[in-house]
Amino acid sequence: MVQLLKVHGSQNAFFILDQTQLQNPLSDEELINFTQKITDPSNGILGGADGVLVVNEPTRSGSVAQMRVINADGSEASMCGNGLRTVARYVAERDNLTDFKVDTMNASLRVRKHDDLAPGVPAFAVEISPVKFDHTALPFNNLGRQRLLNTLVPELYPGLYFSALAVPNPHLISFVNKETLHGPALKELGTRLNSDNPYFNDGVNVNFGYILGHNELFVKTFERGVGFTNACGTGMSATSLALALTHPDMASFNEPINVYNPGGMVKTILHRDNYNYWIELIGNATFTHTLTAEESALHQADLPALSKNITESNENQAYLAFVNSLPALTF
Ligand SMILES: N[C@@H](CCC[C@H](N)C(=O)O)C(=O)O
């Protein structure tokens, strides 16, 4: 029998599949099929998810595991910040570690156990890097600019200023007012830039930031390969850095920034080493359910077999109590 975990970071929900426990790891084709089926919210298993986090043996020396991120639509992302916290906790508990490295598509990233966010809410801190701004890194084209940093780009959306950062998955960021935050622009832009379009031919995660105060931010994200999500860890990290670079009086380096999102709250800490930026993302790593099944059920994406033996933890109650303890945001 094998186990699958249902987890979340700021209610950005995933299944963790540890391929190292399998006799035969799933092929890429099986992973895509499995992910598209198990994440579908209408499939009847725990409300679906935003993606599947695949744990493999490490690919680089000095790391203890590899994480692959398969988005709900079957596309693969180079990074996932909320997901990395949950994988960090999974590997930490599996291998009895507290501070180690996990390989992602483009980098080996440091992860470490952090103090609990609240009673019963385990937390991890993860490194978000490398950070790039050039249009080739996202990529974007046909905008007549090499970089976007608080740049008015009417081709994308009239009246909005945009910043574009790869961390290393691609993020487009705009700081908006209340009306725009709650209006149709995010869905319209996210849908358009993640369909056939002349600007972002690999798609892009689109983040709207609303500045609450110094080192205080709210971020709402339309994710590539997913759509609206409760939270996006790399999106909140990229938006924090964009805030410090474009509104330097509103965010400081080397200090925690509180980033609220529809699923809760995380902290980010911005770092600059010479000319390289990197970000620490600190937040919950919550395990809500364990699914136990035969390995063949994974290969066949057999949802009825996967839903037969599910046990629920009480961690989500503690997480929701933490969310209820956060200051009410009135906007
Ligand atoms: N939610 C994630 C990002 C997941 C990947 C994204 N959809 C992409 O395609 O880049 C996070 O927490 O960072």
TrEMBL record:
<comment type="pathway">
    <text>Amino-acid biosynthesis; L-lysine biosynthesis via DAP pathway; DL-2,6-diaminopimelate from LL-2,6-diaminopimelate: step 1/1.</text>
</comment>
<comment type="subunit">
    <text>Homodimer.</text>
</comment>
<feature type="binding site">
    <location>
        <position position="71"/>
    </location>
    <ligand>
        <name>substrate</name>
    </ligand>
</feature>
<feature type="active site" description="Proton acceptor">
    <location>
        <position position="232"/>
    </location>
</feature>
<feature type="binding site">
    <location>
        <position position="169"/>
    </location>
    <ligand>
        <name>substrate</name>
    </ligand>
</feature>
<feature type="site" description="Could be important to modulate the pK values of the two catalytic cysteine residues">
    <location>
        <position position="171"/>
    </location>
</feature>
<feature type="active site">
    <location>
        <position position="80"/>
    </location>
</feature>
<dbReference type="InterPro" id="IPR001653">
    <property type="entry name" value="DAP_epimerase_DapF"/>
</dbReference>
<comment type="similarity">
    <text>Belongs to the diaminopimelate epimerase family.</text>
</comment>
<feature type="binding site">
    <location>
        <position position="205"/>
    </location>
    <ligand>
        <name>substrate</name>
    </ligand>
</feature>
<keyword id="KW-0413">Isomerase</keyword>
<feature type="site" description="Could be important to modulate the pK values of the two catalytic cysteine residues">
    <location>
        <position position="223"/>
    </location>
</feature>
<protein>
    <recommendedName>
        <fullName>Diaminopimelate epimerase</fullName>
        <ecNumber>5.1.1.7</ecNumber>
    </recommendedName>
</protein>
<feature type="binding site">
    <location>
        <begin position="223"/>
        <end position="224"/>
    </location>
    <ligand>
        <name>substrate</name>
    </ligand>
</feature>
<feature type="binding site">
    <location>
        <begin position="233"/>
        <end position="234"/>
    </location>
    <ligand>
        <name>substrate</name>
    </ligand>
</feature>
<feature type="binding site">
    <location>
        <begin position="81"/>
        <end position="82"/>
    </location>
    <ligand>
        <name>substrate</name>
    </ligand>
</feature>
<keyword id="KW-0963">Cytoplasm</keyword>
<keyword id="KW-0457">Lysine biosynthesis</keyword>
<keyword id="KW-0028">Amino-acid biosynthesis</keyword>
<feature type="active site" description="Proton donor">
    <location>
        <position position="80"/>
    </location>
</feature>
<feature type="binding site">
    <location>
        <position position="12"/>
    </location>
    <ligand>
        <name>substrate</name>
    </ligand>
</feature>
<dbReference type="Pfam" id="PF01678">
    <property type="entry name" value="DAP_epimerase"/>
</dbReference>
<dbReference type="InterPro" id="IPR018510">
    <property type="entry name" value="DAP_epimerase_AS"/>
</dbReference>
<comment type="function">
    <text>Catalyzes the stereoinversion of LL-2,6-diaminopimelate (L,L-DAP) to meso-diaminopimelate (meso-DAP), a precursor of L-lysine and an essential component of the bacterial peptidoglycan.</text>
</comment>
